[in-house]
Amino acid sequence: MTDTNEEFDAVVIGAGFAGIYMLHKLREQGLKCRLFEAGDGPGGAWYWNRYPGARCDSESYFYCYFFSDEILQEWTWSERFPAQPEIERYLNFVADRLDLRKDMSFGARVSSTVYDEASRRWTVETDAGHKVTARYVVTAIGGLTSTASNLPNIPGIGDYKGEWYHTGHWPKDGVDFTGKRVGVLGTGSTGIQAVPVIAQTAGHLTVFQRTPAYIMPAKNHPLTEEYNAEIKANYPTIRDNVRTHWGGQPYDAPAYTFAELSLDEATRLQEEYWNNGGLRVIQLFKDARTPEVREFQEEFFRRKVRSIVKDPAKAEILEPKGYPMGAKRIALDTNYYETFNLPHVDVVDVRKTPITRITEKGIMVGETEYPLDIIVFATGYDAVTGPFRAMDIRGRGGIRMYDKLDDGPRSYVGMAFAGFPNLLAVSGVPASIEHDVEWIAALIEHAEKNGYKAVEPTQEAEDAWTEETQAKAAGSLFDQADSWQYGSNVPGKPRRFLLWLGGLNVFRERCDEVANEGYKGFTFAR
Ligand code: NAP
């Protein structure tokens, strides 16, 4: 169906966690809506990221929607850390449960969205031929998106004659690695998940590592009926804990003070947490930010690598070092280090000897050519600003979002942009997404009830928020490494922090404050 020239109250872009809930919420408020999604089904990041081993690093019981008690009770997760297919099934389930499909167009990538000041409407066009108008546009395009995947600009990349894939838009039919010489470039959260699975069938696997990540064991396992019943009974408490926790995780605060423990006792506890797995591995000490704790934990994790990886030369390369733990995202693995004990799996340190070029046959490191049948780029994304700049978004007076975000992220409360009336944005992880969706829905309801036709933040409010966001990151751990969070994974991208580092709980309070003070920082026009 092509909705040519159809008029909507709101267009939502993207059918991931954010878009699905946004569509539901706005429809509930009586708005006539249309959602456009490039993939051919719901899922968003979990539609595109179907690379081998793709799995969530958050535990399933809180990597989900909390807004509907029915959905919480009706859906049952099968694993502690759900794999991509299960999350994709979950999002399909929610879309069906809320009867959303009739208002969704799949296989439709939004190419442009342009504001007309006279009619106060947006014209939205897709590469599938849709051209519709709407009063509101909500982007739910995610911060780490297939449209903005980061393919390194290594010389000769176009010469390569073998197969190559970026993990962020993995073929639906999968890739057959059987007996092939495979190279994986990139050892962030994605590469670390893909390597052990690719190694199962590849003839030979070479991992090209620039920065060794700090990696904790996931210790994933199936969930029992009893466990799920207990979780379902406790959802009200879990929901409250997610909403009041700094990072949106319903975990207890760290229980121990390192400074009060003997080294043996601290090591025993750290071992216990390691064996339990998950991101909690590093969340046991109240005084975690002191240099003593950091040194203790970093060395503990290096010892772990040395104890798992039998070849000391490989272990030396894989040991995390060169930056403080936490300055780049910590990853969870299942058998990552163990995989390097297989005789057909190698790791090459491309920090020590950089990649010089990609050839017809493979990857050249220094003077050594590694012939490869398949290259997997697990090289991440032009995060947060990239997906916005990949779309032609034009606001008042034809100003382009592409230009606005040229020297880094700019927004008011992460959701609105000066010069772009009625354009609102949701992204993040489910815990923050639910908040943003509800906050945006309330803002729109406020505008509708009061007969406002256009709502937009002031330049001053946007400037202040943008600067505050940068100030929160300055001097933080993230400041001590290159990462996608700082935009420093993309050559030429300005080093500006792309996320809010002030805590999700504080963010909620700040947004409440804006709303309670009559949406301070916004202007409304009739
Ligand atoms: P990433 O964290 O940006 O990692 C990209 C990797 O590619 C890094 O190891 C990077 O090395 C390397 N790389 C990039 N360009 C390179 C070049 N020119 N030469 C050599 N190496 C290069 O990307 P990602 O692993 O896709 O993860 C992105 C984010 O997605 C994660 O941080 C996480 O938020 C999310 N994610 C979540 C999950 C989950 O929940 N389970 C799974 C996957 C991803 P350097 O470090 O040296 O730059």
What does this structure look like?
Helix content is 32%, strand content 17%. The chain has two domains: 288 residues, FAD/NAD(P)-binding domain (3-Layer(bba) Sandwich), CATH 3.50.50.60; 221 residues, no CATH class. The longest helix is centred in the last third of the chain and has 20 residues. Strands 1, 2, 3, 4, 5, 6, 17 and 18 form an eight-stranded mixed beta sheet that branches. A five-stranded parallel beta sheet has the order 7-16-8-9-12. A three-stranded antiparallel beta sheet has the order 13-14-15, with no helix packed on it. It is an alpha/beta fold. It starts with 6 loop residues before the first strand and ends with a strand. The protein is built from 16 helices and 20 strands. A hairpin with a 2-residue loop joins strand 14 and strand 15. The site of NADP nicotinamide-adenine-dinucleotide phosphate has 25 residues, from helix 5.
Total domains: 2
What would you call the structural class?
Answer: alpha/beta
The geometry reads as: globular
CATH first level of the largest domain: which class? Alpha Beta
Give the CA-CA distance, first to last residue.
34 Å
Rg over C-alpha atoms, rounded to the nearest angstrom: 24 Å
In short:
The chain is an alpha/beta fold. It is built from 16 helices and 20 strands.
Helix/strand layout:
Layout: E1 7-13, H1 17-28, E2 33-36, H2 45-48, H3 69-74, H4 84-97, E3 104-105, E4 110-116, E5 121-126, E6 131-139, E7 163-166, E8 181-185, H5 189-199, E9 204-209, E10 215-217, H6 225-233, H7 235-244, H8 263-276, H9 291-308, H10 312-318, E11 331-333, H11 336-339, E12 345-349, E13 355-358, E14 362-365, E15 368-371, E16 374-377, H12 385-389, E17 392-394, H13 401-404, E18 423-425, H14 430-449, E19 454-457, H15 459-473, H16 504-516, E20 522-525
Parallel strand pairs: 1-2, 1-6, 2-3, 4-17, 6-18, 7-16, 8-9, 8-16, 9-12, 10-11
Antiparallel strand pairs: 4-5, 5-6, 13-14, 14-15, 19-20
Helix pairs in contact: 1-14, 14-16
The structure holds NADP nicotinamide-adenine-dinucleotide phosphate.
NADP nicotinamide-adenine-dinucleotide phosphate binds at residues 55-57, 144, 152, 154, 185-191, 193, 210-211, 329, 350, 355, 378-380, 482, 484, 489.
